[in-house]
């Protein structure tokens, strides 16, 4: 049995330790906000936080996640500045990549509440958006940063 803490809740799953965390999150725990994109860690759709750091869950073995605090998109509060900014700036089009984009943005602002344009572009460069909403993503991060700095 593998013991996990996801979004502050404890789970026990009967899987091999080498199973990707993504599959446990989606298929076993039914937390389907985390998306499967490429399966090789290149698109960012499966981004979750592990001990506060953005990680690609398709490349993270569930056995290595034991004892760590895991946060999925479902664990980010609805009123989080990034989620609010995403809505206000009308970022999503198809929406498929957005959970991973939001998770990456939350991690960025947790590390640097006032990132430069260059730092935003660098931090978000591994998260792909087929709809090309990159300018809106950048605007939303800058908007959320203003709120994060205030608190």
Strand order of the largest sheet: 2-1-5-3-4
**Regions with little confidence, pLDDT below 50 for 5+ residues:** none
Span from first to last CA? 40 Å
- SS content category: alpha+beta
Characteristics:
single chain; 151 residues; alpha+beta; Ubiquitin-like (UB roll); DNA polymerase, domain 1; 2 domains; 5-stranded mixed sheet; 14% strand
Outline the secondary-structure elements:
Blueprint: E1 2-6, E2 9-13, H1 21-28, E3 47-50, E4 53-56, H2 62-65, E5 69-71, H3 81-88, H4 98-111, H5 117-124, H6 134-150
Parallel strand pairs: 1-5
Antiparallel strand pairs: 1-2, 3-4, 3-5
Helix pairs in contact: 3-6
Write structural notes for this entry:
This protein has 151 residues and is of the alpha+beta class. It folds into two domains: 2-75, Ubiquitin-like (UB roll), CATH 3.10.20; 81-150, DNA polymerase, domain 1, CATH 1.10.150. The chain has helices spanning 21-28, 62-65, 81-88, 98-111, 117-124, 134-150; strands at residues 2-6, 9-13, 47-50, 53-56, 69-71. A five-stranded mixed beta sheet has the order 2-1-5-3-4, with helices on both faces. Helix 3 packs across helix 6. The termini are far apart.
């Amino acid at each position: 049995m593998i013991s996990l803490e996801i979004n502050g809740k404890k789970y026990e799953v009967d899987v091999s330790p080498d199973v990707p965390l993504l599959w446990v999150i989606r298929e076993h725990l039914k937390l389907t906000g985390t998306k499967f994109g490429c399966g090789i860690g290149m698109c960012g759709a499966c981004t979750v936080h592990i001990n506060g750091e953005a990680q690609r869950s398709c490349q993270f073995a569930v056995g290595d996640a034991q004892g760590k605090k895991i946060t999925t998109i479902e664990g980010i509060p609805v009123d989080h500045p990034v989620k609010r900014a995403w809505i206000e700036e009308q970022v999503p089009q198809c929406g498929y990549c957005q959970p991973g984009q939001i998770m990456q943005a939350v991690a960025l602002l947790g590390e640097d509440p006032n990132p430069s344009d260059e730092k935003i572009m660098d931090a978000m460069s591994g998260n792909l958006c087929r709809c090309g909403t990159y300018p809106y993503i950048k605007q939303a991060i800058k908007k959320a940063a203003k709120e994060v700095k205030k608190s």
